Amino acid sequence: MKKIIQTNNAPAAIGPYSQAVEVNGTLYISGQIPINPATGTMVEGGITEQTKQVLENIGAILKAAGYSFSNVVKSTCLLSDMDHFKAMNEVYTTYYNENPPARAAFAVKGLPLGALIEIETIAVK
Description:
By secondary structure, this protein is an alpha+beta fold. The chain has a single domain (2-124), classed as CATH 3.30.1330.40. Helices cover 23% and strands 33% of the residues. The protein has a six-stranded mixed sheet, covered by helices on one side. A hairpin with a 2-residue loop joins strand 2 (20-23) and strand 3. The radius of gyration is 13 Å and the shape is globular.
């Protein structure tokens, strides 16, 4: 059975998609960009601040669905520039310091609202 996950502790969808969908013990989290859910605006700062906000948003969705970062099995990181890769990794490691998930990271031409990073996530119970 498909269950839609929505929390006010993460940014509302900016298009026709759900924050996350759970099916048979697997949670699929839509790509999160660095929007502060309290203000509805992009966080100020560079890739470090934006990566932290993205991971906080993911954490809020995981929690709302009854999951944690330890349940994450796959992340896809989309970066506006591969020059951000090292700084992104420094923040990412603080959320996945043991048994990190499988991951891909790509540089893309552009991200919604001019974000420097977007991360989509899959978690399994």
